[in-house]
């Protein structure tokens, strides 16, 4: 078993360089399949989800190599397969983006249907509804979803209005529409920074996408996309996680390589709690001058407060004076981390999608489990500020989405290590 061991109580000081955005890589790397040429993508985070995405690209016929620690080159001129192998696809929720790209380029895509996951049911009905509006047929065959355009023709541009704001369906339809015949208009579209980044990537390769960042995105289909270079935006949520870490543990850090505008929705509630945050051109100084006060947060699509920062803010709320209230509106099962924080002494009650925190002076180290990616990040934050030693198991979840979290925190002065424990269980024999 591998786990993180954290001895709390060290304030954080120094500078941390933020990596490329996980959720931009999630759609842009599958987007390489649309390109009949060679692409270079930089600022790619070295996280498990990226390694798996590259494995899927290679299984379809792409040639991918790392040019440096954060830069890849991909040649997608010869793609032999139209099928995402189930044993690879089911390991990553975002494998659904391969449906949009295979369908957009070849008129056919087969991929495992994403199941429910630990934060909620995660349906893809809005993606499928969009593909159908563009002329595709789809069928569910066991665990696989098969989507195709009749006679291998191109998708046709269409007007699609999503029933709810969905990041995944917005990006999947942008990918599918880039090579479609005619104009696609996406209404009630999501406007997260990684959606703007996907549009930037597609346009850099010859696509015609406008309106990204608003609730209406227009994609004028082009016959083909060419190779080129693109650099991913920095990870808004990784940056926010370090901001929350300083809020809980104390100290003063500089985040570098960031886009301050993307962090306003996270800075605002942290400032309200008492944090000092100063924006530079591509950096942010974050410090905790004194005690924090409670906060009320409701998660919303961008530019609202991001659900992917909700558990980390929950960890901060454990220490804030008085009462804090967090309402999770996006994922039905994203308050489970509170049970692990309670094991460390937090005072939290949960009613359906609302968590109420009463600040306590100290949490105490305990053995706890990362129940999903951001739940794991919340435990790391709580552990940095807790008395004594915390052991966090199931860290595979954390490493799917954070590049070298332990190394970056240790460089800021945290006492954190990644440990491996030999287990002599029956299954080992
Ligand atoms: N929804 C539907 N039908 C659909 C699609 C979505 O009902 O066809 C619902 C979902 O059940 C959810 C809501 O719409 O209640 C929003 O889902 P969305 O499609 O926006 O989420 P996603 O694309 O599956 C991405 C991120 C998540 C992040 C959400 C919201 C990736 C790979 N994942 O998921 O990131 O929470 O957007 O911002 O981009 C994370 O990084 O920890 C993470 C879970």
Task: Tell me about this structure.
The chain is an alpha+beta fold and 429 residues long. Helix content is 31%, strand content 26%. It is built from 14 helices and 23 strands. It has helices at residues 22-31, 48-60, 86-89, 97-106, 125-133, 167-177, 193-204, 236-249, 264-273, 310-317, 337-343, 373-385, 396-399, 405-411; strands at residues 2-7, 12-17, 38-42, 63-68, 71-75, 108-112, 136-141, 144-149, 159-161, 183-187, 208-210, 216-220, 228-231, 251-256, 276-279, 283-287, 296-298, 323-327, 347-351, 354-358, 367-369, 389-393, 415-420. The strands form six sheets. It has a four-stranded mixed beta sheet with strand order 21-22-1-23, covered by helices on one side. It has a four-stranded mixed beta sheet with strand order 2-14-16-15. Helix 1 packs parallel to helix 4 (97-106) and helix 8 runs parallel beside helix 12. The radius of gyration is 22 Å and the shape is elongated. 52% of the residues are buried. Residues 424-429 have low confidence and may be disordered. The structure holds uridine-diphosphate-2(N-acetylglucosaminyl) butyric acid.
């Amino acid at each position: 078993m591998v786990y993180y061991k954290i001895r709390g109580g060290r304030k954080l000081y120094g500078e941390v360089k933020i990596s490329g955005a996980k959720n931009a890589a999630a759609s842009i790397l599958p987007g390489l399949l649309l390109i009949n040429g060679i692409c270079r993508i930089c600022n790619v985070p070295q996280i498990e989800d990226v390694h798996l995405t590259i494995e899927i690209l290679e299984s379809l016929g792409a040639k991918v190599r790392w040019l440096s620690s954060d830069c890849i080159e991909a040649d997608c001129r010869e793609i032999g397969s139209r099928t995402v192998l189930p044993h690879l696809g089911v390991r990553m929720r975002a494998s659904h983006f391969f449906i949009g790209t295979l369908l957009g380029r070849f008129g056919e895509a087969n991929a495992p249907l994403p199941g429910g996951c630990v934060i909620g049911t995660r349906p893809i009905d809005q993606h499928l509804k969009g593909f159908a509006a563009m002329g595709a047929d789809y069928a569910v065959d066991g665990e696989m979803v098969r989507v195709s355009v009749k006679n291998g023709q191109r998708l046709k541009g269409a007007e699609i209005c999503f029933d709810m704001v969905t990041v995944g369906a917005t990006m999947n339809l942008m990918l599918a529409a880039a090579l479609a015949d005619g104009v696609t208009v996406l209404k009630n579209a999501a406007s997260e920074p990684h959606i703007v980044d996907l549009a930037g990537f597609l346009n850099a390769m010859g696509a015609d996408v406008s309106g990204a960042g608003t609730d209406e995105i227009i994609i004028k289909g082009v016959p083909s996309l060419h190779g080129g270079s693109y650099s991913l935006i920095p990870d808004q949520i990784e940056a926010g996680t370090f901001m929350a870490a300083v809020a809980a543990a104390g100290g003063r850090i500089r985040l570098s390589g960031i886009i301050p505008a993307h962090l306003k929705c996270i800075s605002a509630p942290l400032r309200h709690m008492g944090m000092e945050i100063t924006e530079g051109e591509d950096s942010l100084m974050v410090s905790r001058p004194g005690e924090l006060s409670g906060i009320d947060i409701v998660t919303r699509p961008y530019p609202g407060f991001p659900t992917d920062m909700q558990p980390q803010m929950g960890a901060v709320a454990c220490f804030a004076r008085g009462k804090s209230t967090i309402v999770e509106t996006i994922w039905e099962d994203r308050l489970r981390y509170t049970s692990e924080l309670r094991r460390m002494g937090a005072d939290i009650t949960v009613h359906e999608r609302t968590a109420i925190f009463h600040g306590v002076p100290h949490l105490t180290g305990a053995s706890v489990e990362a129940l999903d990616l951001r739940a794991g990040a919340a435990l790391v934050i709580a552990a940095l500020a807790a008395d004594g030693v915390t052991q966090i198991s199931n860290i595979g979840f954390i490493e799917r989405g954070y590049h070298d979290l332990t190394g970056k925190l240790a460089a800021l002065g945290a006492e954190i290590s990644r440990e491996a424990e030999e287990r002599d269980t029956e299954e080992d024999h």
